[in-house]
Amino acid sequence: MSTDNAIETHDLTRRFGDFTAVDHLNLSVPRGQVYGFLGPNGCGKSTTIRMLCGLLLPSEGDIRVLDLDIPKQAEALKRRAGYMTQTFSLYRDLTVRENLEFVARLFGLSRQRTRQRVEELCHRYQLEALASQLAGTLSGGQKQRLALATAVLNQPELLFLDEPTSAVDPQSRRDFWDELFALTDAGTTLLVSTHYMDEAERCHQLAILQRGRLMAQGSPERLKADVGATPLLVVTAAPRKAQTVLQALDGVRSCAQIGASLRVLVTSPDQLPAVRDALRKEGIEGKVDITDVNLEDVFVAATHGHTEGAS
Amino acid sequence: MSDRFSFARLLAVVIKELRQLRRDRLTYGMIIGIPTLQLILFGYAINMDVRHLPAAVVDQAQTQTSRQVVEELQQSRVFNFNRALHHAGTGEAMLRRGEVKAVLIIPADFERRLQGQRPPLQLIVDGSDQVVQQAARQIAQFPLRGTTTTASVEVLPYYNPHRNAPLNTVPGLIGVILTMTMVMFTAIALVREREQGNLEFLITTPLSSAELTLGKVLPFVAIGLIQTSLVLLLGKWIFQVPVRGSPLELYLAALLFIIASLALGIFISTLVRSQFQAIQAAIFTFLPQILLSGFMFPYEGMPKAAQWIAEVLPLTHFIRLARGIMLRGAGLDDLWPELLALAVFAAALLVVAVARVHKRLD
Ligand SMILES: Nc1ncnc2c1ncn2[C@@H]1O[C@H](COP(=O)(O)OP(=O)(O)OP(=O)(O)O)[C@@H](O)[C@H]1O
Ligand SMILES: [Mg+2]
Question: Chain B contact for A287, CB < 8 A?
Fold first, then answer.
């Protein structure tokens, strides 16, 4: 295929014993964009990223990252890609500055360049006041800023970020994403895994994973347009009772309570009368309307609809 | 196309290690505390009953009685006089090399002495080994038939005229302390990188496994040499333990032994998954070394199988070197086979250990 893609995989598979953590994954990640990995716990996001970095060997399949054959050419990738691990992987008993200096030395930066780069990064990621603090004593969000600073220290073309904003408050998360977009402006390709819908919404492209399989791939708009299901909003005084009723109904793919209302995903808009009938029959008063598709619906549709088929 | 070995990256790891060590008060304390405590604990050593110590006999009398006396001493099973020599000088040379633990000298005027006041027998013993000294004391009480003298055997400690008990323990203790700290610290230090998740990040940098491993253990080489010096100094101050041979040669032996122990530690770290397992594995290698190396129980008193095992333990060879150099004033010209054995261990363990450190998670 073309070299426009930063990452391409073909039937990428990883097994741990009998268990298949990543199952014939075909990904294409365009250059210079933010590509999101969305999926529940244990769906194989970290495992996939580790294979893409050359940390884990695939059981099957081919990987090309920045036109390099991985894992064969993994050494060459190390100077061109950065990796921010899901769990903090810097030294807790070194200070912020010492951690940055250590990584700068590993990349062979000169002494002067090291000083300059560390200062730059501390400034950009608001670590100046924390420079002499031990990394282990940083708050969750501060740790994440330090991890991002070390991951981008060598100015990589490609950045892997494994759940970079878990344990970060909403405001800091926005700031963090601003930093990520600043990186794409500079031409960096980003692969970000997440559980958060609002983060997924910000990605240029998304892959929805479940049980190691690719359930859907595309831009958020595209995925929403192609969802193949219709969300209904049910406003009622007895949401719990309504939920029990609707879950048993044919054509209802999911039903989740959101405050006093229910969000119901049905296979087609034609189901609207059936839903209203079912509620009325049970004597539940309520207002049912079609609403806009959001990413959560896409996620639910992509993952729930296929559960039976998968098992 | 992996990068070549980079000293800059090696240095980066060393600097990082030293910075971490500086903050690690507990390890700091152990580096100083373990040698000090052990020296004092083991300084007042354990005495063991022994049998079949190798010994030589120089029978200058060559009479019926003299042969009978040798036979009777042999019966006591403490010494095994299986080397018959002509000159006392040869016996002393064998003592120095550690081939025998004692030399029995039967003077030419043996028969006359039996009637007189002077002790008719002389037993020159390796005074650097307090186990041997104790055995010699038993022999000294040996009743000789048809003699008028009360003391039949004159015991002459060859290297240790003051019968200083900790003397023999201290050289061995250097080895024991080095094994304990070097193996355990390295095993833990490397596993910690994995356990705390650091490895996952490090693998995605240009750092190679050889650079990481060497960078992590180099500071321990320095620590090992500091510990050696500490035990030597404390041994001198508290127990008057000398270094009769060349200090340089002693440090060379210590350096090789440190490298062998570090390599063992690295090897362990590639087998285990957690710091706790690393400690268990370190103790597992530590016990046979302390028990079979001749530190606690004399090599001569061990069954054959145990002696074979002892030969493949680095500590055995280091203890022989340390005792030889410190107490008998022996040089590497005498002890080179031990040094060679140690060098072979160090090289082999290092090669195996570094080869096993991979740069992957699985
Ligand atoms: N080394 C391993 N040995 C055995 N199973 C493993 C190993 N690593 C991962 N797995 C399994 O593979 C599956 C995928 O794990 P992975 O860490 O990739 O999930 P994830 O999508 O990153 O989840 P999360 O969102 O919780 O981080 C999980 O079921 C996990 O238990
Ligand atoms: Mg994960």
Answer: no
